[in-house]
Each structure stands twice: as C-alpha cells, then as structure tokens.
Design a protein that fits this description.
three-stranded mixed sheet; about 240 residues; 7 strands; about 40% helix; two-stranded antiparallel sheet; single chain; mainly alpha; globular
Length: about 240
C-alpha cells in the first residue's frame, strides 16, 4: 500500500496550526518577545557608523514610510545578483556606510531585519517569477524537490505531500516563510529563515548550505514565491 497524502488546503500559514496561547503571544506586541529585537533595530536604524558617520536613516529616512512593503519583495535580483534582505542590509553597510558586514544570526543583523520586516506586517508577499530571477527560481525549486541526506527526503515530501499530517505528534506545516525572522520557543531567541532551513537539512542528515550562500538565497526565493499572497507576519512566534 502507498503512503496516504494529506489533503492540501490552498495556502496556510503555520500560525493557523499553533495553540491559542502561542497565537496570542505573536499577536500582542506586549507579549511577543521578538519585539525586543524590533526595538533594537529601530535604534540601530538611527545609529551612525563608519568613517562617514552615516545611519540607515541618512539615506532612507523614516523606515515607516521608506521600508513599507520592502520585505515582501525579497529575495530579489539587484545588479544581476540574487539578494536576500539580510544580504541587502550588509550591502548597504559595506557600500554606503563603509562598515563591516554583519554575520548571519548576529543580534544586530536580526534586529535590523526584524525592524525592516515589521514595517510590512500584514502586507501580502509580492515575490513574482520574472526574466531576471528565472534561473535562480529554477535552482531553488530544484532544491525544494530534491531528495537529500541520509534520510533521502526532500522539502516537498514533508511540506507538500504530507502537510497537515502529524510527525511526532505535531502537525506538519506547509513550510511558508511568511513570519521570519521568528522567535522560536525551542530556540528561546530570534532566528532567521536560513537558520530554520539549516535545521531541516540537519534533521534529514544532509550537508547544510552555508549562511548567505547562493544556494540559500535561491531556496529562499522559491519559498517566498511559493508563499506569494500570504500576509507577512514578521516578527512571528513559533513553537
């Protein structure tokens, strides 16, 4: 007998699978621990760095206006390179501020990413497939569907074929990235989408992609395209 597949609903944020308590934690800014990072990001937005003493606001002004809708469009191709939101923040730091790039999972990079993403909270993900990103999209889609690791599993086998079923007593989500960066209760801290993807790769005993690698950006691109239309929940809370 074959393995039964779950009935796939249209699009469903993993928010819908959480307990009422965890939903309340995400929904209430006074309860959402990720808001500490958003607050730090707001301060960093105004902080002048580098030899030219420039801040993010020097170029971009009020983030509530200039960054509205920005996070819904990443990853995107800029001057021929596929850039994640974190990658673009670092590009600005190095190119415009003459400051060193921040490492992935660095608290400041997470804070800036969360602060920028927060300006688009509730807006639909707007990543589309086009001539500029078609090759990157193809590679990301291939990674999503490719079996990997000692367990010989693909992303699609869990998050499409078995979405809605249970694994270890917990429901399997569709795997949409619409709430990142997220505060994960398991981590007890804020983390990026790339941290979660590396967790999955480790879970199937596969070689993990490096943080900031082209492969990570391509997979992010496909996942955001796959989640297009879902409202951005950043910064989210998950178990």
């Amino acid at each position: 007998m074959g393995v039964a597949k779950a009935v796939q609903p249209s699009q469903q944020s993993s928010y819908e699978l959480m307990s009422a308590e965890n939903k309340a934690m995400q929904d209430d800014p006074s309860l959402n621990p990720a808001m500490f990072w958003v607050g730090d990001g707001e301060s960093l937005w105004q902080q002048k760095v580098g030899p030219q003493s420039k801040s993010c606001s020097t170029c971009h002004g009020d983030a509530k206006k200039s960054m509205r809708g920005v996070a819904t469009q990443y990853p995107k191709v800029i001057k021929g390179k596929l850039q994640t939101l974190e990658g673009q923040i670092n590009q600005c730091r190095v190119g415009a501020q003459s400051a060193p790039a921040l490492a992935y999972e660095n608290r400041d990079l997470l804070a800036l990413t969360a602060f920028i993403a927060f300006q688009s909270k509730g807006m639909p993900i707007a990543v589309s497939e086009n001539s500029a990103n078609a090759t990157f999209m193809k590679m990301g889609r291939q990674t999503f569907n490719e079996r990997m690791g000692q367990l010989n599993l693909s992303c699609a086998q869990c998050h499409e074929d078995r979405a809605g079923l249970k694994l270890g007593g917990s429901p399997i989500p569709q795997g949409h990235p619409n709430a990142y960066p997220i505060y994960r209760l398991e981590w007890q801290t804020l983390g990026s989408l790339q941290r979660r993807l590396r967790n999955c790769m480790s879970g199937v005993r596969a070689q993990q992609f490096e943080y900031g690698s082209p492969e990570m950006a391509q997979l992010e691109l496909f996942l955001m395209w796959r989640a297009r239309g879902l409202p951005l929940e950043s910064p989210g809370v998950r178990p």
